[in-house]
Amino acid sequence: MQKRFAAEREKYGVREADPVKETFEQVWNDDTKRQQLLDQQDEAWEKLRAKLQRYDQHVQAQFESADQPRFTYADRIRMLSGTLVNRKPSTLKLPQKIKELAIGQVKDQKADQAE
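RE: above sequence
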């Protein structure tokens, strides 16, 4: 079946790279795909941030109704400043290109670092 698909790809001039088999490095080194990946991460992070805000409102309501020392949302944000609570993944300084390593190379690098 794979041979048949390869022959059809060649016949119709479709690129050889299979998106299902692409490595992270191949996706990251393609500017368009990297931007799409970062946009998806930002969207997912916004959903998580909205859930976190709903949870914080719930916790704050519980603290206000109890006779316990108050730990405010502002205190929590101050402690978490600099984390992804206040930022998006796309604002992080990430490399523009990364080198693809074979599995054996990764093991060799780990062995070299251990020595």
